[in-house]
Structures are given as structure tokens and as C-alpha cells.
Automatic annotation (TrEMBL):
The keyword Zinc applies. It catalyses: N-formyl-L-kynurenine + H2O = L-kynurenine + formate + H(+). Keywords: Hydrolase, Metal-binding, Tryptophan catabolism, Zinc. Pfam families: Cyclase (PF04199). The lineage of its organism: Bacteria, Bacillati, Bacillota, Bacilli, Bacillales. Catalyzes the hydrolysis of N-formyl-L-kynurenine to L-kynurenine, the second step in the kynurenine pathway of tryptophan degradation. The keyword Cell division does not apply. This is Arylformamidase. GO terms for molecular function: arylformamidase activity. SUPFAM superfamilies: Putative cyclase. Signal peptide: none annotated. It comes from Alkalibacillus flavidus. InterPro entries: KFase/CYL, KFase_sf, Kynurenine_formamidase_bac. It comes from the Bacteria. It is an enzyme of class 3 (hydrolase).
């Protein structure tokens, strides 16, 4: 198994406007006589996470409404490390027959690196391209499928319009392109716009 999740701690890079991750021990065994009890605070979009459509669409599905089978099953990791803009033409020769989940490997945000100032751009036409090929989940080793300063979130909306869901912030250091088994289940957060996940690849 390969852990493709970013570690959550006080040094985890976050979106500039978001709540940084913090964990505090609110009661210790010395206090309770039996257990340690902690609490954490964070944004739903810190480190490795999924976006629910409600994140960018007031009428979109929330995390608890998403079909969980999206996040478990065979996935194709595709190497796009040479691309600064990823288009349908770049993926035209990739065999997507029977592929329901795709993760795009850009290698532009290594694990442990600061929050990036710019990232490769995903062409919004990928929404219809992936839909035509039966892909329902797209993951990236980036904090977003749109440019970091985007307000229109064209690719987010194109993905939603084509019934494609989003996994962001995975870390693919040392992961080769190819087929794997993915597990990246979100927490069952009622009404939430996103959720951290523990994302795992298993060689098959």
C-alpha cells in the first residue's frame, strides 16, 4: 500500500484564507485518570481532501450526499509532469477503457513543500472529455483543479456539469503511472462542502 495523503500538523500548508490545522490535547490521562482526549480544527480543504459540489455551487451536493463508491476502486495514475496546461489532447492516447477514476500526476507540489504560488492549469474541456470516457472521479496532486486565483472556477463547474467529482492535494512522490486500487473516503460530514481524506493506493 502507498499512502498518498499529506500529513496534517501545524506545518501543513493551507490556503492563505483558510483555518490552519491545529491539534490540541484538551484532557490528559493525568486529568481524566483513564484517557487522553484531543480536538482539532482545520478547513475542509486542507491537505488531501475531496470537494463536494456545494463548495462552489449553493445547490450542489454536500459531502454526506456523495456516493461513497466513487472513492474506492480501480484508479489510473496518469503522468502529466511535462505539462503546464493539461488538455484533452494531452490525454488522447491514454487508454481510458473501463476507467472510472483518474489521478493526474504533475509533480509540481512535492510533499512537505510550501503552498504553491502557481500550478498547472486543467483545461475546462476535460469535463466533457472525461465524461465521454466514463470517468467519474479526477484526482490531482495540486491544491485545486483551477488556477489558484480563479474566482469563476471554470474547471470545477465543468466537472460538476459532467458528473465528475474531485480529489485534491494527493502526494505522488515516487508513484509510477499505472493502475492501482484507490481508497480515499471522506468523513460523513452533514452539510459540508469538503472533507479531509486518508488516500491510499494499493498495487494491483
Amino acid at each position: 500500500m502507498i499512502d498518498i495523503s499529506r500529513t496534517l500538523n501545524a506545518d501543513t500548508p493551507t490556503w492563505p484564507e483558510d483555518e490552519p490545522f491545529s491539534y490540541d490535547l484538551t484532557a490528559s490521562i493525568a486529568d481524566t485518570g483513564s484517557v487522553n482526549i484531543g480536538q482539532f480544527t482545520t478547513s475542509c480543504h486542507t491537505a488531501t481532501h475531496i470537494d463536494a459540489p456545494f463548495h462552489f455551487n449553493n445547490s450542489g451536493l454536500t459531502v454526506d450526499q456523495l456516493p461513497i463508491d466513487l472513492y474506492v476502486g480501480r484508479v489510473l495514475v496518469v503522468d502529466v509532469t511535462t505539462k503546464q496546461r493539461i488538455t484533452p489532447e494531452d490525454l488522447a492516447l491514454i487508454d481510458l477503457q473501463g476507467v472510472r477514476r483518474v489521478i493526474l500526476k504533475t509533480d509540481t507540489w512535492p510533499n512537505g513543500a510550501p503552498f504553491p504560488t502557481e500550478i498547472p492549469e486543467l483545461d475546462a474541456r476535460l469535463g466533457s472529455f472525461f465524461h465521454e470516457h466514463g470517468v467519474e472521479l479526477v484526482g490531482v496532486d495540486l491544491p485545486s483543479v483551477d488556477p489558484l486565483d480563479s474566482k469563476t472556477l471554470d474547471t470545477h463547474h465543468a466537472f460538476e456539469a459532467n458528473d465528475i467529482h474531485i480529489l485534491e492535494g494527493v502526494t505522488l512522490d515516487g508513484v509510477e503511472a499505472g493502475l492501482y486500487h484507490l481508497s480515499a473516503l471522506p468523513l460523513k460530514l452533514e452539510g459540508a462542502d469538503g472533507s479531509p481524506v486518508r488516500a491510499i493506493l494499493q498495487e494491483i
